Amino acid sequence: MSSASRKYSSLLVIGLKNEMAYRWDVLISSFMWLLYSVIGILVWVAVYSFSHTNSIMGLSLPTLIIYFIVIGALTPMLNWSSIVDIMADGIKGGSISRMLIRPMSYFGQLVIIDFSGSITNILMVSVPLLVGMAILTNMHVTLLLVSLFLLYIVIGYMIVSFMGFIVGSMAFYLTDVYGIAFSINYGIMIIGGGIVPLTFFPNGIGHLLVMLPFAFLAFVPAATYTGTISLATAVGLVPVGLAWTAILGIVAYILWKRMGKMINVVGV
Amino acid sequence: MDYAIEVSNLHKSFMTYEPKGTGVISSLRRTRKVKAALRGIDMQVGKGEIVALLGRNGSGKSTLIKAIAGILYPDSGYVKTMGMDPWNQRKRLAMQIGVVFGNTHPQLYWDLPPIDTFDYIKGIYGIEDADYNARLRYFIRLLNLKKIYKRQTRQLSLGERMKCEMVAALLHLPPLVIMDEPTIGVDLPARMNIRQVILEMQRDYGMTFLITTHVVDDITNVDRVIMLDKGKVIFDGSQEKMRSMLARDVILELRFGVDENPSRLIRKGKIMKFEPGYLKAEINPSVLKEKWLTNLIKNKKIIDYRISEPNLSTVLERFYSSTNKGRRKRGKNSQNKKDGYR
Ligand SMILES: Nc1ncnc2c1ncn2[C@@H]1O[C@H](COP(=O)(O)OP(=O)(O)OP(=O)(O)O)[C@@H](O)[C@H]1O
Ligand SMILES: [Mg+2]
Prior knowledge:
The structure holds two protein chains of two kinds.
Chain A: H1 3-20, H2 23-51, E1 55-56, E2 59-60, H3 61-74, H4 81-93, H5 96-100, H6 106-136, H7 143-169, H8 178-191, H9 203-210, H10 219-226, H11 231-236, H12 238-259
Antiparallel strand pairs in A: 1-2
Chain B: E1 3-19, E2 30-46, E3 50-54, H1 61-69, E4 76-81, H2 90-94, E5 97-101, H3 114-125, H4 129-142, H5 158-170, E6 176-180, H6 188-205, E7 208-212, E8 224-229, E9 232-237, H7 239-246, E10 250-256, H8 262-265, E11 270-275, E12 278-283, H9 291-298, E13 302-308, H10 312-337
Parallel strand pairs in B: 3-7, 3-8, 5-6, 6-7
Antiparallel strand pairs in B: 1-2, 1-4, 8-9, 10-12, 10-13, 11-12
The complex binds adenosine-5'-triphosphate and magnesium ion.
Adenosine-5'-triphosphate is lined by residues 14, 16, 35, 37, 55, 57-63 of chain B.
């Protein structure tokens, strides 16, 4: 094993052990994510039955239900507030020094810690939802579709990590960013297609939103998986996602180079 | 000489904000002040040395240590730690250093037993199984951790935790160990064991130590003492040098049978304590050779006498009170110049 992968896997191991110290919290949070997805679906069932239609803007109720199940599976993974949390806590409480004395990059450590917190949700929420839904709906799952979906999850994960890092860097200026992070998070859910599919937006706006990085956290992967957008469109969006990943990565890097120097570990 | 740490002309200021008033609204308006924590530090630590960094609260010890460890970016000046730029080569440097940051920035995972953190450290620094087990056994025996290291960290007492923090900093045998108040909350026997650990690591592996402390007996075995005051080095040298600079006087104790007027007994020096049959005075060593004193000691009324050097805490006490005087004097001047801070 290379020394870098040895270091980061050690961090992942202790991160998981630490999560397990809070096993009840973890279970409850998984349950909340499930509940969250069920509520989203029930709202749409109500909308459809009140409006007495089978299809809104070309989407049938079953398609929409599948769409929101996928969103329900994605949100616990593509959620950035924990990176912001870890950063803000570290800067306020000084625990950032524990990370900076390690022979690993700060960003790398944040991603691993965040990931060790997501693993249980992925195993207990995302995987069961995706697999269960594929079986129940008798979905025609092709290798291309699955690999495209997984690629989008990776892209989404990178985008969400960089965005979290950028917002978290604001903690150097504003010591309490959690409130901001939470409201931005909600806004991003909306313009990323996490609350209503982007196809519901007026055409011009919808097309614009699909090209923004936020769409890769919800709409693009979910629409790809459910076939709301054609496979050709889905493949065509890959370079857009990669471009955003690169841009956000560069912004995060520059920000860190500048902000990092302002860290003054408080206390001791 | 091969240096583990080289610092020259290092500066660091912090921006602080103070509310203008005490009311809710007026406290929103804040004045910005610049707090100079390091004001041109020059110091070196040679490889294999044990150096104590002393100074009053707020003198800049922790700030200096953070700059040396690469977790704080200085405003200006030069720092080299193990031959590296601590900020730009932080990751590479991290492989070579071990740190304890007092009680406030623990390395131990709060909700896990210390052994989990130790295992994690084994992983990041690539410690071989055999070495790891041997070192762990050594620390467990010497620091008496047998009943501790498998219990959840948050259940441990402060001293128990600090001992485990120490292990976490030393397990990978880093060539340089930087410790900010490692003995906070640690009891006397454990402090003696910690001192032993440090000496053995220096002897066996040539490890270098830079330690801050407010506990006087922690510095009994150090090779050198560096003292900071208001962000500057005001003393750098051996303990003997410190004693001779700050405490040239020796302590003379006399026991005698009959009540005497001490002022008649001691013609020079300062009387520190006088009670029936006992007298303690501070005198210049040159006075020891003066005739009146040798006569006094030979005097029949004197049952017993003792001449000794002042102990370390007396030396430090004197040191701190001397910096305090300087502070008051300078404070007045700077008020006149209207620059309360710099
Ligand atoms: N993050 C910060 N923001 C503002 N001022 C700071 C900050 N950190 C330290 N200071 C100030 O800089 C000065 C030096 O602080 P430092 O922590 O280095 O002192 P110290 O010698 O370690 O003291 P102690 O013995 O109490 O630990 C102090 O006056 C402190 O108030
Ligand atoms: Mg300090």
